[in-house]
Amino acid sequence: MAKKVTTYQDDLIESLKDPKEAAAYLNAAVEEEDQALFLLALRNVAEAHGGMSSISQKSKLNRENLYRMLSKKGNPEIKSIFTILHSLGLKLSIAPKKSSVRSSKVKKAA
């Protein structure tokens, strides 16, 4: 019996159907501080959740505009990012940067 062959992209899209996986994937993209990478990650998550048509209907954003916003050269407004994430059942949160040295050390009195 022949095994079914899947591509990396197929496996990725399947795993991104899980909200926890999608959130971890998007957070990893944010950590890279590369807008194009984040937009690619968001496109992959959107594909996992039914594609641009489905996200367009859920978010009330124009499908063509979604493609444009999430393209390599896309520059979506933060409001649009919030809307897309909300339609995917996700949210954006902010946390302090991790650093090995505390920037607010208290100086010892002499």
Describe the 3D structure.
The model has no long low-confidence stretch (mean pLDDT 90). Helix 1 crosses helix 3, helix 2 runs antiparallel to helix 3 and helix 3 crosses helix 4. It is built from six helices and no strands. By secondary structure, the chain is mainly alpha-helical. It has one domain. It starts with 7 loop residues before the first helix and ends in a 23-residue tail after the last helix.
In short:
This protein is mostly helical. The protein has six helices and no strands.
Q: Any descriptors?
A:
single chain, 110 residues, mainly alpha, 6 helices
Topology overview:
Blueprint: H1 8-15, H2 19-31, H3 35-48, H4 51-59, H5 63-69, H6 78-87
Helix pairs in contact: 1-3, 2-3, 3-4
Count structural domains.
Answer: 1
Radius of gyration: 18 Å
Average predicted confidence as pLDDT: 90
Shape: globular
The biggest beta sheet reads: none
What is the helix content?
A: 55-70%
Taking the alpha carbons of the first and last residues, their distance comes to 79 Å
One letter per element, helices H and strands E, the order comes to: HHHHHH
Low-confidence parts, pLDDT < 50 over ≥5 residues? none
Structural class based on helices, strands and sheet pairing = mainly alpha
The strand count comes to 0
The total count of helices amounts to: 6
